[in-house]
Amino acid sequence: MSSDLTPRQFRTHTSSVSAITVCFLAVALVLTGLVAHVVTTMTRSANAIDDARADRAAHAAIVSFMAKLGATIKDNAVWDDAYKAIGTPAAADWAYENWGKTSADYSLYDGAVVIGPDGSAVSAYLKGKPFQPRDYFGETFDRQMEAAAKPQPAPLLNFFKTETGILLVASQAIQPFSPTGELSNLSVLTFFKELTPEVVDALSDEHELDGLRLQGTPEPNELNSPIKDMDGAIIGYLVWPSKAPGNAIFNGVRPYVIAAASILVLFLAAVLLAGTSEAGRLRRLTEAARFEASHDSLSGLFNRHGILDMLDRLDSSYSAVSLYMIDLDGFKAVNDAWGHAVGDQLIRIVAKALQDCHPEIHASARLGGDEFALVQFGSASHRDIEDSILKLFRTPFKIGGRTIEVGTSIGMASRVGDITSLELLRRADMALYRAKENGKGQAVTYDRGLDRERQRVAELESELRNAIDNGAIEPFFQPLVSASTGAIIGLEALARWRGAAGSISPEVFIPLAEKSGLIDALGVHMLRASIHHAKAWPGLALSVNVSPVQLCNPDFAAQVIAVLDESGFDPSRLTLEITEGVLMTNPDQARRSIDVLRRIGIKIALDDFGCGYASIGALRQFGFDRMKIDRSLVLGLEENANGIDILRATVALATALDIPVTAEGIENPRQAEILRASGCDQLQGYLVGKPMSSTEIGETLRQHTSAA
Question: Exposed, middle or buried, 564 (CB in 10 Å: 0-12/13-18/19+)?
């Protein structure tokens, strides 16, 4: 069919084909009716007689099935030994030995439940394993227990529909065979048997119902017998095909009918074949395109568009909707270590596991990279869902003989009021962001405080940007003194920000600068301002801290050199202090930047050594010009019995590698004396000088010069 046809032409063509088809069908029906009229009456009569027989057999099959379970429950409930045992403290063990254990492989029932007079479950076993009957059967189970609690000669039998299928549940009060008086406060014994395909096949064989099967809805052209629950509602059907013996009569004249119909069918097939084939092809292409537009090709889950579209289509009946956003911790390391093929396989395994992590998870999506989303419908607690997700990652994944460990962070938001799907996604994303900030393996639920905090951070970020532009962040200088002479031989520049509402801690604004992309501008500003002041103090070394984010910037070395060139500052006076973290995150880029800077005379110091993960190999590889031991080692001199030994071992390591050592955080003379004796050649801390403004440090230097 030409793709140039207009919609009207297409409809006209379709109508023509339909008209021809109707004509052929009419002729076929007339020819067929001439032959079929002769045998129709006998065929229908024979079929109706056999169908009536089959219907009675199906009813008898259900009655027989109920009778077997009813007899079994009665034999076990009306039993003197059971009546005596259930009233003792060993009731649970007795019930397990006599009923619960048997349920593992017993043909008469799949599970056994004993409910005490107070309504609590004394014993509940399904296929030999304990379970929660009320969660399994639903609230109707309590009604059956209440009705069966009264002593009566016949058991109470009803069909139940559960998540696993349709069950026959038989219940009867546990009572003596010959009661001597009025019975009260009786426990209830319940046996249940699922209508599994095997059970249905057995009923089919016993009652000559070929093709008998259990379905949720009846088949239009097959016989059925409804199965009803205790409220009379239909919960399933026994369905089987009619044997149709009358059709055997019709088969005698079938060749004549087939001959006439075949002629018309051949013509009809020729006309419709091309149109049907094309329509099918277009339908398949449309379905494939729709699927690709809404699903992730790697995992098979919804993509972002698909999950948002699904959430948009939920009506008001879905009031309890929660969205969980999940981010894998450590996935980048998997890609780096094992390659993207293993990473892709891990994504597929995780996607499958997340789909099945909890019964109330009804939709799942991969939003991109290692980020997933799950949609919960139901009343389960958010903690329950989060625990189910976190549990998946407590066991390492096995891929191609490799053991791969990844964690996860979770952000959750619930639909409240008329918020849009995009807003729900934004809230869950905000909670996920907080979870990742809190550390790996965390789950955070959205609240409005996160919005307020995000607003405060945004405002502080704007103030930080203005402070950098306006020079409101200025360097303070802390003296570095010689351990042997006590003379000031250098200064460390420390960033200080005095905002409109007071001083803002570097522990607040420096991490903010790193996250917001302002750390490069802040670093260049601090370097330029520190050098500007240090030019007034010739002969003193200047130390400036460098963020790991700066050092990983390929342009960092060029920025430092540009500042030195414009200020005319001697590079040999400058020491850049870096922390151990950069050696782990991006050692190659760090090494390239360090090599460029050292070639022009800049020194590189390893800051805060002893609080991270730097190895001896890393110290040798980078060849630092100085090591600054962390203040925690200095505090350990006062707090730990072996603090001196640890400190001496650290200094000895640096000495063996020919790296001079600076100790920071010195607060009393005893610490200074121990560090001096251990081999530290530079001291820093409040004992020798606190951080001071440029004016204060200038006055301090003049006093030291006068005293000298």
Answer: buried
- The predicted-structure confidence for 598-617, as pLDDT tens digits, reads as follows 999 999 988 877 766 556 66
Q: What does residue 378 show for φ and ψ, rounded to 5 degrees?
A: 145, -175
Check whether 583 has a pLDDT greater than 90: no
Q: 94: left (phi > 0), else alpha (psi -120 to 50), else beta?
A: alpha
Could you give the CA distance from residue 635 to residue 575 in angstroms, rounded to a whole number? 25
Please give the structure tokens belonging to residue 479: 């003296």
Instruction: Using only the alpha carbons of the chain, give its radius of gyration.
Output: 41
Q: Which range, 137-141, 177-181, 241-245, has the best average confidence (pLDDT)?
A: 137-141
Of the candidates 177, 156, 148, the one whose C-alpha atom is nearest the C-alpha of residue 66 is: 156
Residue 679 amino acid letter = G
Residue-wise DSSP of 660-696: -EEE----SHHHHHHHHHHT--EE-STTT---B-HHH
Residue with tokens 């001199």: 637
DSSP code, position 103? G
Give the span between the Cα atoms of 422 and 416, in whole angstroms: 13
Q: Are 410 and 333 in contact (CB under 8 A)?
A: no
Q: Is the per-residue pLDDT at 530 higher than 90? A: yes
Give the helix ranges, DSSP H, for 471-540. Answer: 506-516, 519-534
Question: With helix as H, strand as E and coil as C, how does 382-440 read?
Answer: HHHHHHHHHHHCCCCEEECCEEECCEEEEEEEECCCCCCHHHHHHHHHHHHHHHHHHCC
Is the pTM of the predicted complex or chain greater than 0.90? no
Question: What is the DSSP secondary-structure string of 619-640?
Answer: HHHHT-SEEEE-HHHHHHHHH-
Say if residue 6's pLDDT is above 50.
no
How does DSSP classify residue 368? Answer: E
